[in-house]
Fold this sequence. Notes:
Strand content of chain A: under 5%
Shape of chain B: globular
Largest sheet of chain A: 2 strands, antiparallel
Strand content of chain B: 15-25%
Oligomer: heterodimer
Strand order of the largest sheet of chain B: 1-2-3-4-5
Order of helices and strands of chain B: HHHHHEEEEEHH
Order of helices and strands of chain A: HHHHHHHHEEHHHH
Largest sheet of chain B: 5 strands, antiparallel
Amino acid sequence: MKLKPLDIIIIGLIVFFLFGFTHISIAFILSSSDQDQEVKSSQEDQAPQAQKQTVQESGERINKADQKEKGKEEGIEEEEKTIEIADPLYVWNKGVYYFNDKLYFWLLKPVAQGYSAIFPEGVRFSISNFFYNLTTPIRFLNSLLQLKMKSAGNELIRFVVNSSVGVGGLGDFAKDKLDIKRHKEDLGQTFGYYGVGHGFYIMWPFIGPSSLRDTVGLIGDAFLDPVNYITPVQDSLEITASDEVNDISLHIGDYEDIKKSAIDPYISIRDAYVQNREKKVKE
Amino acid sequence: MSVRIKKVKTGIQNKSKEVSMRKVLTGLHLFIFLIFPFILYAGVPLNTVEGHVNKVLSVLRDPALKGDSSKKAKKERIRAISDKMFDFTELSKRTLGTNWKNFNPDQQKEFVVLYKDILEGAYMDRIMTYKDEKIIFHKENVLSDDTAEVQSSIITKTAETPINYRVILKDGEWRVYDVVIEGVSLIKNYRTQFREILANKSPEELLKILRKKVGKA
């Protein structure tokens, strides 16, 4: 059976109502703090805008076309209103941000650099692919939960192909040869898909930027990550850490670039996180 | 006489023919003018952006400009292309949003220059490292009468990163006023930062911060 977009919408609506008021109330509680902020900021923006326009109109001679353009611009600004996230834990978050920053520059980056000196890039890509392949259950289940049958199917095919032809997931045969893309769905996105807001922003040590919603998602997804079932716990943690170092070794310079481009890196990262998650939820 | 009458008659007939021809022509004109905008704009934003990007790539891949010695020349050429490709005033206006009006004309001018320097400082080095990366242009979406979004992705060894260019039509040219990478809009990201600063600082103080950032303090 092929699902058309309309079918998905209808099924989505049915599920939405099946979840009922409990779901809506949870979503409301979680997102209400965001909305309050947005409303406030838009009110603040509009008031001075209106004032200024009247001043301009009475003052200088403005072409009709100009005015029209201005109206349009303001319309776009309204449309492109920056989505703000509540940040009640600002002090904690900023502290953790500095901690992570130092952690990266003093420990993780040098370790990752030493690590890349030993292992060639190809090997590191394979290791990254291997761990990525292991977490297929997370993406498969979340695709299903979001009724994205095609993504779920693709993830399944990717897992079968890459585990066999790709030698236990070391190679990404599905992407390279069959052009089956990765569908990075997670539980945070699933919550978002059903209308749950971020709640508020949280910066976690080691993990980095997150939100209340996405943290709950991370915990849920952790149950589907086979690495977390390895005993003793120490081994599991060591494997997670080496996976982390491996990933960092492939992305040295990204964080530096963000820091260099930003006027206020903390806010830049917070905003980028929200925008990026927004896009992933919409996809 | 009869000949004359005939002549007059044919004249009238000609006129009526002319009228009907005119009707057809105006109809055709209307039709053409209605369709024209679509023909005119379809593909132009995409081709414009793609053209600029290809020019940058050809500079980066130019064998005559290899090595560290020609780095400066390379940068100079890329800068020239980016000046044509981007509308930095529009970009600045949209970044500041409602705050733009709180800057006086001189401050606005300085802001545009400083902001451009910051963006260059942030992205030039990254762009200079590109060599074998593949850039694919997908399609364009119309956003409004005079704005469109051109979708592309850059394929590196690690990943495929979607990069969307938002362009605006000004004086017959489509110019970029926003770049959206992985869903993160450049101007929105800076807007959040500037808004936070301007919440308790004056435009002059913001300019001071920017001057310091680009080393023009």
